[in-house]
Amino acid sequence: MTSREDERLAQAAVTALTGQLALAPKPGLPDPRDLGARATRQDHRALRWSAKALAPGLAAMAAAARRTGEPTPGLRAELGAIGRGTEHSVGLAGGGHRGALWALGLLVAAAALAPGAGARDVAATAKRLAAHPDKRAPRRPSRGSSVSAKYGAAGARGEARAGFPHVRRALDALTTARSAGATEGEAQLDALLTVMSTLQDTELLYTAGPLGLRHVQAGARGVLAAGGTATEAGREALTALDADLHARAWSPRGSAGLLAGALFLDSLPVSARVPAAA
User: Fold this and answer.
1) 54: DSSP letter
2) Number of C-alpha atoms within 13 angstroms, CB side, residue 255?
């Protein structure tokens, strides 16, 4: 049974996911401009609907964590089972967000385990959860795990087991951009580009190979080096990168999911009290 706090955490995660969908232009990723084109309008709407379909599963993950109270192997197995059921529901709602579900599920569960904790403490708790193997997971390899094995990329599981370093980098980028006077949209785009600049995105490796991945990373670094999206030069570089990736049909979906994780952590209220040790 879920509590109001479980549902609040789930809704915060969904809001973070739908919030990054609203950013534009997002290089190679769906954004509101797609609503003007029939071919992509359905894709963008499906992503919004499927994001909302994550809420019951995420609330169930938070409830499981609250009930268990510790980042145990048993909790990890329960989260995996809930996640697989949620994937099915998301598929019925249009599909998408599989990588985001993995990241947000662990972070939501970690937030439930450490109420009032800061973003980095929540990420550290998620790392402890991710360290446990999911013994009930299907034995067949996923596309992401196959690409990770082929190219030696960390992938979604490696990111979680490392304590979400790219989520933490995105949080730092948000803080830096806001302090420099960027709008919230510009700050979030800079955070996305920060993730894109170094992430070994398995989706990109699958579609574009190592050379394509490096091309995308270099393009993201170029926007940031030009001053970020709050500057004229940075916006011009962003527009060029967006056009390039859409023309090539290269989509850095892994970066979008990790940005959603950062926005979720950024939204959490930090209690003035010292949180109980997890």
Assistant:
1) T
2) 30
Query: What whole-number distance in Å separates Cα of residue 40 and Cα of residue 56?
Result: 27
CA angle (173, 129, 93) in 5-degree steps:
75
Question: What is the average per-residue pLDDT within 18-30?
Answer: 90
| CA distance readout (Å), 253 to 83, 236, 240, 250 | 19, 22, 19, 9
Which of 98-112, 223-237, 264-278 comes out lowest in average pLDDT? 264-278
Reported as a single tens digit per residue, the pLDDT across 125-179 is 999 999 999 887 777 777 777 888 888 888 888 999 999 999 999 999 999 999 9
pTM reported for the whole predicted model: 0.89
pLDDT of residue 40: 45
Burial code (b: 16+ CB inside 10 Å, e: under 16) for 153-178 equals bbbbbebbbebbbbbbbbbebbeebe
CB burial string 69-89: b at 16+ within 10 A, e below: eebeeebbbbbbebbeebbee
